[in-house]
Write the structure tokens for this entry.
Amino acid sequence: MMTLYINACVRPKSRTNRLAHALLDRLGDFDEIRLDGLRLEPMTAERLALRTELMTKGDFSDPIFDQAKKFASAEHIVIAAPFWDLSFPAELKTYIENIFVVGLTSVYDENGVPHGLCKAKKLWYVTTAGGYFDPRFGYDYIKELVGHYFGISDTELIYAECLDLIGKDAEFILSETIKNKIDDKSFF
Ligand SMILES: Cc1cc2nc3c(=O)[nH]c(=O)nc-3n(C[C@H](O)[C@H](O)[C@H](O)COP(=O)(O)O)c2cc1C
């Protein structure tokens, strides 16, 4: 069973990445995409024009579609992204711009209603926050996007919060989260 691990963590000793790895250990083999190494470009005027032209022709052979194809064919998806500025790092938004491709991850019917084309049975969103975690502009957005447009209705949030608060023991919070939210659970 192939899991796609989308790693939007930035720091070398990322705690979000550690939390995600506890989950990945349970899920089995995975294919990792490190967004900070990938250097995906946002949709500039040129890239948008190229993509629209190819999409209209139904020609998805260009490398501009590689990430969308990978995402659409994954059986399970794990996204790891630290809680930044009430949301997640910009590279994750750039990744989303690159994978939202009509004809690969989503299609619209004649009434403008989107239908998902992605195979994934489940998507996990793993995050850690320095203070209190707020899902509204990170996890809730991802959940709506993949559920409504990509056809992945089963999503789960795994998070650890308050890691940077004075007087809090980040290591303890992390290990308790791994124990209670990951190790003690049955996944399939
Ligand atoms: C650029 C940046 C923005 C951040 N914004 C927030 C924030 O809005 N709220 C919060 O609680 N913590 C915020 N933090 C703290 C991180 O959420 C916290 O340290 C997290 O555990 C980092 O994950 P990591 O160890 O995987 O890098 C921010 C940290 C950075 C570097």
About this structure: Residues 104 and 150 are 9 Å apart (CA to CA). Residues 170-183 form the longest helix (14 residues).
